[in-house]
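Sequence in, structure out.
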Amino acid sequence: MKELVQYLARSLVNNPDAVEVKETQGETASILELKVAKEDLGRIIGKQGRTAKSIRTILNAAASRANRKVVLEIIEDK
């Protein structure tokens, strides 16, 4: 799942080297934390959150095939 999010994020942003994905495993769920460069945050979230919602939909479809639950958190650096 981590590789999928990394691939999607790197494809969307202008600065693919700044993409970081951190995965935390639980018993039934995984939490993926996505960090991108500050100027690319809008590209990942999209208008009214559409791009972020689409990434989450793709991620949940892949996770359901493995009988897992995945939560994607987009981390904003300050």
